[in-house]
Write a structure and sequence with these properties.
Layout: E1 2-7, H1 11-22, E2 30-36, E3 52-54, E4 65-69, H2 74-86, E5 94-95, E6 100-101, E7 106-107, E8 112-113, E9 118-119, E10 124-125, E11 130-131, E12 136-137, E13 142-143, E14 148-149, E15 154-155, E16 160-161, E17 166-167, E18 172-173, E19 178-179, E20 184-185, E21 190-191, E22 200-202, E23 207-208
Parallel strand pairs: 1-2, 1-4, 2-3, 5-8, 6-9, 7-10, 8-11, 9-12, 10-13, 11-14, 12-15, 13-16, 14-17, 15-18, 16-19, 17-20, 18-21, 20-22
Antiparallel strand pairs: 22-23
Length: 209
């Protein structure tokens, strides 16, 4: 059995801890070893949590370790994941049992698929992507590596978000829209036109800000 370490012991890290206890594979494929966080006092005042084993930068992966990343900021997440990968660390994907996953969809390595998320037919989720609570990735959608879909976001059929994109809470990406690399979509926005790389859009319809 593998030992799971969670990168990040902040609020989202605590959420991922509880998700990991409910996810497919808990106590059959892995047990939870603890957290890694560069702030060793992150869990002060929080009872019932597993320990912080060490810092992300200093920890040396062990033979039976598995990792999952619980850092919300996309750039920080990528940096920390790459630190662990360079040391030979192996990541796993966590999927909550209430998520609806089409059998012909593809989900990459190191992803987190949370409660009541929906992944449609022929959708492709890249490595280290996050699909938050009750979000919808409809049929034929593409989600790039390290991208993040916050709670209640909707990707309508055939839409594409490229690498390192953040789509904030309750935003909707309309049919066949492409959101460029490192772009951000503001909360509650409706995106009806393609978004260029590195741009932040917001509003109904969404416009650059």
């Amino acid at each position: 059995m593998y030992n799971l370490l969670i990168l990040g012991a902040g609020g989202f890290g605590r959420d991922i801890y509880f998700l990991a206890k409910e996810a497919l594979g808990y106590n059959t494929e892995y047990s939870i070893k603890g957290f890694l966080d560069d702030n060793l006092e992150s869990l002060n005042g929080y009872e019932g949590m597993p320990p912080i084993i060490g810092t992300i930068s200093d920890y040396e992966p062990q033979k039976d370790d598995l990792f999952v990343c619980a850092l919300g900021d996309v750039a920080t997440k990528k940096r920390c994941v790459e630190t662990v990968l360079r040391k030979g660390g192996k990541f796993t994907t966590l999927i909550h049992p209430t998520a609806s996953i089409a059998p012909d969809s593809k989900i990459g390595n190191g992803c987190v698929i949370m409660h009541r998320a929906t992944i449609g037919s022929d959708a492709v989720i890249g490595d280290f992507a996050l699909v938050q609570v009750a979000s919808i990735v409809a049929h034929d959608c593409r989600v790039g590596n390290f991208s993040r879909l916050d709670c209640f976001t909707v990707m309508v059929g055939g839409t594409i978000i490229k690498e390192e994109v953040t789509v904030h809470t309750s935003a909707v990406i309309n049919h066949h829209v492409i959101v460029g690399k490192k772009a951000q979509v503001g909360a509650c926005s409706l995106v009806i036109r393609n978004v260029k790389d590195g741009i932040t859009v917001f509003g109904i319809p969404a416009r650059p800000i």
